[in-house]
Write a structure and sequence with these properties.
alpha+beta, 2,3-Dihydroxybiphenyl 1,2-Dioxygenase, domain 1, binds 2-oxoadipic acid, binds nickel (II) ion
C-alpha cells in the first residue's frame, strides 16, 4: 500500500517533471532556486532550516489550477483528498482594486504538522463565477454555464481511484501508478484545438475567464518552488536574462524575522496553440497561459499580527521598496524585530518545547509565556506560513494577464463567502488561523504537562 503522503510527494514530483518538459524557464527557475538554497545553507548552516528542513524546502512546490463549476471543484477536492490535501482558506479575487478576476479560490494542502513536514504540496484552486453579473451578462453567463456543463475534466476512472485512496488511506502499487498517471495527465496543457471566437468573447471579459471557460480542459498554470533568499534569486534570474515582474510581492526585506510570504513571478513565453476558426479551418496561434513564480515563506501571523501587517502594507502601497523597508524598520506601529517579540506580543504562531536540560537555578517556572522564554524553560520554534495572500494572488493574476478585462460595478455581484464555497465543494473550508492555533495550543499543553503547570 502506498500511503497518501507518498502519493502526494510522488504527484508533486510528477507535475514538476511534466512542467519542466513543457516550460523550459521553469527548469531554469528550479536550478537557480537550488543554487540560492545551497548558498544560504552554506552561509547560515543550521539556521537556514529554522522554517523547515532543507529536504522539505527543496521539494516544496505550490501549483495553481482554475476550474469552472462547483461540480468540477468537487471532483478536484476528491483528487486532492486522495493526496491528503484539504481546502483551507477563502480568497475572493473579484474585488481586488487592481484587477478584475471573476473567480473565488481556496488552497488544497495538508494540515497536520507532520504531514506538512513530510511534503507540504499545495494547490491554489480557483473557481469561475459565471453568475456574477458584474462580469457576465445573463446571455454570456448562460452560454458559459452550458459550455462548462458539457465538458469532462477528469475521467471517471481517476475519480474512482481517488475515492478509494481517500477511503483506504492510500492505494496498492499498481493502482497508485495508474492514479498518478491519470491525475498528472488531467493537469497537462491540452493540444485540442480551441474555438477561437468563443475564446475571444470571454477574453474581452477577462483573460482568466477565457483560460477557464474557453477550453475543454484545465491545466496547471504555474508551479512554484520555495527559496530561502528571494532577493538573491531575483538578481540571479535577472542576470540570466529572464525578465521578472518589477517587484517582489508581500513584506519587504528587513532586519526582523521573515513573516508570511514573499513572491515574484515572470511571464512564460507564448506557446503555440491550435485555434479553430468559424469556417472550420484550424490555424496555429499563440497563447500565454502559463508562467513562472517563486516564493519565500516566513512565520505564520495570528489575526492580530495579520491586522498589523495589513495596516503596514496599506501605508507602503505607493512607496519604493526602500521606503517600505524603512517603515518596517522604524515605525513604532510595526513588528518587533525578533521572534521573541512576535511570540510574547501574540503576533506570530510558534510551537513551544519544554527545555529538558535547563541548568537548575532554584527557580520554579511560572505560567507566563514571556517568563518561560526568558528564563529558558521553553524554546519557541516558528510555525511556517502555509497559505497565500489575496493581494499577492491578485498581483500574480494581474501581472500575467493580457488586457485589462472589464467589470461593470453597476450590476449585481454574486454573493460568495467561505460557507458558500464549502457548500459548493461539499466539504468544510478550513480556517487557516484555527489550524495554526491548534498546532500552537497542542504544544503549549505538552509544555504545561512537562513543567507541571496549569494552562499557559
Ligand atoms: C493563481 C494565482 C495565485 C499565488 O501564489 O498567489 C497564486 C492563478 O493564477 O491561478 O498562485
Ligand atoms: Ni502561485
Amino acid at each position: 500500500m502506498i500511503p497518501q503522503r507518498r502519493l502526494r510527494a510522488a504527484f508533486a514530483r510528477r507535475l514538476s517533471e511534466m512542467y519542466g518538459q513543457e516550460v523550459p524557464a521553469y527548469r531554469t527557475l528550479v536550478e537557480v532556486s537550488r543554487e540560492v538554497n545551497d548558498a544560504v545553507l552554506a552561509r547560515l548552516g543550521g539556521d537556514a532550516e529554522r522554517l523547515g528542513s532543507i529536504d522539505r524546502v527543496s521539494a516544496e512546490r505550490h501549483g495553481a489550477i482554475r476550474v469552472g463549476t462547483p461540480a468540477e471543484l468537487q471532483q478536484v477536492a476528491r483528487i486532492f483528498g486522495a493526496l491528503g490535501m484539504r481546502p483551507v482558506g477563502f480568497y475572493d479575487l473579484r474585488d481586488a482594486a487592481t484587477s478584475a478576476v471573476p473567480v473565488v479560490s481556496t488552497a488544497f494542502r495538508p494540515v497536520e504538522a507532520d504531514e506538512l513536514a513530510y511534503n507540504p504540496f499545495r494547490v491554489f484552486t480557483s473557481m469561475l463565477t459565471p453568475a456574477d453579473r458584474r462580469f457576465f451578462d445573463p446571455d454570456l453567463g448562460a452560454r458559459l454555464t452550458a459550455f462548462l456543463a458539457a465538458r469532462e475534466l477528469f475521467p471517471p476512472e481517476l475519480l474512482d481511484l481517488a475515492d478509494r485512496a481517500e477511503l483506504d488511506g492510500g492505494l496498492p502499487e499498481q493502482a497508485a501508478e495508474r492514479f498518478l498517471d491519470l491525475a498528472a495527465r488531467s493537469f497537462a496543457l491540452s493540444t485540442e484545438p480551441i474555438d477561437k471566437s468563443w475564446y475571444e468573447t470571454l477574453e474581452q471579459v477577462s483573460a482568466v475567464a477565457a483560460d477557464i471557460g474557453g477550453v475543454a480542459s484545465t491545466h496547471i498554470n504555474h508551479l512554484t518552488p520555495r527559496v530561502l533568499d528571494i532577493d538573491d534569486l531575483y538578481r540571479r534570474m535577472t542576470e540570466r536574462g529572464i525578465t521578472m515582474i518589477d517587484k517582489i510581492q508581500g513584506p519587504p526585506r528587513w532586519s526582523g524575522p521573515d513573516v508570511l510570504l514573499r513572491q515574484t513571478s515572470f511571464r512564460a513565453l507564448a506557446e503555440p496553440r491550435r485555434l479553430r476558426l468559424p469556417d472550420g479551418r484550424v490555424e496555429t496561434g499563440a497563447l500565454r497561459v502559463r508562467f513562472g513564480e517563486v516564493e519565500a515563506r516566513g512565520i505564520a501571523l495570528t489575526r492580530a499580527g495579520r491586522e498589523r501587517y495589513d495596516a503596514l502594507m496599506t501605508r507602503t502601497d505607493t512607496g519604493a521598496p526602500d521606503a517600505a523597508r524603512k517603515i518596517w524598520e522604524d515605525d513604532p506601529e510595526g513588528f518587533p524585530a525578533s521572534e521573541r517579540g512576535l511570540a510574547v506580543e501574540g503576533l506570530g504562531y510558534f510551537t513551544y518545547h519544554a527545555v529538558t536540560d535547563r541548568a537548575p537555578d532554584g527557580r520554579r517556572p511560572s505560567a507566563d509565556l514571556a517568563d518561560l522564554i526568558d528564563q529558558g524553560w521553553v524554546r519557541p520554534e516558528p510555525i511556517v506560513y502555509e497559505d497565500f495572500l489575496p493581494r499577492s494572488a491578485a498581483g500574480i493574476f494581474q501581472s500575467n494577464l493580457t488586457g485589462e478585462g472589464r467589470r461593470d460595478d453597476s450590476r449585481d455581484a454574486a454573493g460568495y463567502d467561505a460557507d458558500r464555497l464549502a457548500e459548493a465543494i461539499g466539504r468544510p473550508v478550513l480556517d487557516p488561523y484555527a489550524l495554526y492555533q491548534d498546532i500552537q495550543d497542542r504544544s503549549l499543553e505538552e509544555v504545561a504537562r512537562a513543567l507541571d503547570l496549569p494552562a499557559i
